[in-house]
Amino acid sequence: MATDLLNVPENPAKGFNKYFRFKLGRDKYSPANCTAVTSDNNCTISRHAGTSVLYYRKKTGYELFLAVNTLAFSAATTTIYHLLLDSPYQTEVMLCIGSTNFAYGAAVAAVHPPKPFKWGLISAAVFLPYILRLFSNFIKRYK
């Protein structure tokens, strides 16, 4: 049986909204200017607020994650485009895909630290599914 009353969970069924409100003794919080609080309550301060914490911890891992995430996002939008090709909503779908791609690029640029950015890697990840689809169509046409 637990002896520390702070670690005993309350029953959320009795008061759902009251249970999930912030409680100072129970919930952890980040002090001002901290991006992460370690287990011993030390503050790790990043140089720029709102930037990716993964970039400061593992730069190569961040770039790999960003490239693979962008490739997956681009493959998904390519699939949606080709599934709805020749549909009555083709223009609307192209507008949505274009604006979603623009918003994704803006979000990536917003969370990246103000250091040199490898746009070539991201551009390759964005355009690779489209290029592979064109290549596949070209091969099918002349087979």
TrEMBL record:
UniProt keyword annotation of Transmembrane present: yes
Transmembrane segments: 64-84, 117-135
UniProt keyword annotation of Transmembrane helix present: yes
Entry keyword set: Membrane, Transmembrane, Transmembrane helix
Protein name: PGG domain-containing protein
